[in-house]
Amino acid sequence: MLDSARHNFLKLAALGAIGSSRAINTQGGPPDRGAMTSKIAPWVIEHTANGQQAEFMVVLAEQADLRQAAALATKNQKSRYVHDALWNKSQTTQGPILQWLRERGIEHRSFYIVNAILVKGSREIAQALAARPDVARVEGNPHIQNHFPKPLPAVEAPSQSGGGRTPKTIEPGINYTHAPQVRALGFTGQGIVVAGADTGIRWTHNALKPHYRGWDGTNADHDYNWHDSIHDGVGNPCGNDSPQPCDDLGHGTHTIGTAIGDDDSTNQIGMAPGAKWIGCRNMDQNNGTPTRYIECMEFFLAPYPVGGTPNDGDPLKAPDITTNSWVCPPSEGCSVNTLQAAVEAQAAAGIMMVVAAGNAGPNCSTVQDPPSFYEASYTVGALNTGTDTIASFSSRGRVTIDGSNRIKPDITAPGTGTRSSYYTSDNAYASLSGTSMATPHIAGAMALLWSARPEFRHDIAGSQTVLNNAAHFISSTLCGDPGPPNNVYGWGRVDISAAVPAPGPPQCFLCMKPVELSVNFDDVTPPALPPNFVRQTYKVHRRRGSHRIQEYRSRLLIHHRMLHSSMIRSR
Question: What is the pLDDT of residues 270-305, one digit of tens each?
Fold first, then answer.
């Protein structure tokens, strides 16, 4: 239902004339039903049969061009540009459709991260909207069932009753990524904000509360740090529109714990405990919809206060990284490209969107549920923890559902028997398995990378390349070429310490051993060089994880020698 006024839902009384073709025809003549039907997703056709009403997304033909954001240097610049471009496009193009909907009392809600309008209506309404030239397509808003693994018995720490194992100081999956070696260098994710989109988060958990951006050690401020996209749940333990972080199933508390959790004691469950977190509930227990997913992505792009609306959004409060362990299967009615523009908008804004590959393995071409297969998603497969073997459930490429034949996943991380925070109490922990568990390992690894190497912050492609090149490559021909990358392991097992090497001793640039090398200056010999001048270059070894050695030709040194020689002659 579209029933939350605080989210700009417009609910008006339905008019009896809505059902007639004359009342809904916007063009003045008979609509081309063939053209209309080609724009309408099969799910919408099916769920508006026999006079039924359904929720559907009306995606406009005009979408914002975000390419100029790539040339901007900082996260703040990117965020502001992307937000404003998207917002302005929605404001200048949605007006005629919104007016048409209001005149007919049709329930609707506007989005801007995707230039689209959520509508609840009949087949005739969908057809009338599809007939408009300013509408690109009409797609469904189905309820999606995310099938999460059942946890092993939750354990209160430090009590070991109930058959739980004694927690180790650092969890095995964290150790296997070599995160502790990076943290030993002083890089813990400080200055980075990781956002969790999931079943919610138990913010008072001992391993999470100190790391919540909305907690200052004394008081909580949930404005800009939490949003609930569940407005019409029934019997949900968190209710609807929860004003503070709440988890209705445990999955979200678990995943964010693996990214940043640490109780400053025996439960070092997270990759980057120096990072902060914010959250958005995009599932009613395990039940999601495309619009719930989009609403959370819109909130992350420009967070707004509790009880506020996207009008109040501040892109300068956007997180750096989002961890996403959910799917939107086409088999349940989610269109292939419904979420694509929203994912790409986050990337354009400099937000790293880390996404689970899915648990549909072991067959090939099972990376098939949005947003896992998008180019802009950094897609994570699951390893059997402590080994370099793929978990049987981990989805594989190539991507065939969109015809791209894209290689996925991009990278792999530990994903079985992962112990992390749980929602049953502030001191509860549970073990889960899935690509859902592998994904926050990568989100946390990216936080470590960006805290250690700030030159890569918000350079989405560059950061992925660094992490990919540093990965421990695992060859496989199960689903195509052995790689790297391949369709089972991607670039391999994440090794964050290889991407963040220990600093070496200071080096004296002018003391490096010279080597003779012929330097070509466009076949022109520089004037006034000393007759015995020897041109020099220096081999600069790139950081571990690279496959190349660059040669650096110092024109500055040449200029220095020329100037020094000239000064000697002038004496």
Answer: 999 999 999 999 999 989 999 999 999 999 999 999
Quick one: 274 and 371 in the same domain?
A: yes
Tokens of 3: 């029933």
Domain check: are 342 and 208 in the same one?
Answer: yes
At 333, give phi and psi (nearest 5°): 110, 0
- Both 217 and 190 in one domain: the answer is yes
Within 8 A by CB and 6+ apart from 529, the residues are 562, 565
- Structural contact between residues 239 and 248, judged by C-beta atoms closer than 8 angstroms: no
For 87, the 3-state DSSP assignment is helix
Helices first, then strands: H and E counts in the chain: 15, 19
Question: CB burial class (10 A; 0-12, 13-18, 19+) of residue 332?
Answer: middle
Give residue 20's pLDDT.
32
Residue 37 has a pLDDT of 77
Question: 550 is in which domain, residue-wise?
Answer: 509-570
Helical axes 75-93 vs 290-301, angle rounded to 10°: 130
Whole-angstrom Cα distance, residue 90 to residue 513? 60
Asked if 368 and 401 count as a contact pair (C-beta separation under 8 A), the reply is yes
Q: Please check whether residues 241 and 136 belong to one and the same domain.
A: no
Domain membership of residue 149 (yes or no) is: no
Instruction: Indicate the number of domains in the chain.
Output: 3
Whether residue 295 lies inside any domain: the answer is yes
With a cut of 50, which residues of the chain have pLDDT below it?
A: 1-29, 159-165, 507, 509-531, 533-571
Q: Are residues 225 and 102 in the same domain?
A: no
**Predicted local distance difference test score (pLDDT) of residue 26:** 45
Rounded to an integer, what is the distance from CA 74 to the centroid of its chain?
Answer: 18
**DSSP, residue by residue, 453-509:** -GGGTT-HHHHHHHHHHHSB-----TTS---SSBTTTBT-B--HHHHSPPP-----G
Q: Is 125 exposed, middle or buried (0-12, 13-18, 19+ CB in 10 A)?
A: buried
- Residues 12 and 121: beta-carbon distance below 8 Å: no
Report which secondary-structure segment, H or E, holds 431. strand 428-432
What pLDDT is stored for residue 302 in this prediction? Answer: 98
Same-domain status, 127 and 180:
no
Q: For residue 443, which of 424, 463, 428 has the smallest C-alpha distance? A: 463
Q: Which of 154, 274, 251, 141 has the alpha carbon at shortest distance from 201?
A: 251
Tell me how far apart the alpha carbons of residues 245 and 220 are, in angstroms, rounded to a whole number.
11
In sequence order, the 6+-apart residues with CB closer than 8 A to the CB of 494 are: 177, 411, 412, 413, 441, 442, 445, 467, 470, 471
Q: How far apart are CA 379 and CA 346, in angstroms?
A: 15
Tokens found for residue 79:
């965020």
- Same domain, yes or no: 563 and 479: no
Phi then psi for residue 46, to 5 deg, are -65, -40
For residue 88, being part of any structural domain is answered with yes
pLDDT, position 132: 97
The pLDDT value recorded for residue 560 is: 39
Within-domain flag for 206: yes
pLDDT given at position 40: 97
